[in-house]
Amino acid sequence: MNKPRIPIALQQAVMRCLREKLQLARRHFAVEFPEPSIAYQQRGT
């Protein structure tokens, strides 16, 4: 059975938003936070 795929444009939008919020947190706390990795695989049903 084929798994539904997340559109590339949506993945890019999520990463763009994540990077913006991460940069905001870095400036606010003056701490370097590592960029998390995101997996777009559904788990469970």
Automatic annotation (TrEMBL):
<protein>
    <submittedName>
        <fullName>SprT family protein</fullName>
    </submittedName>
</protein>
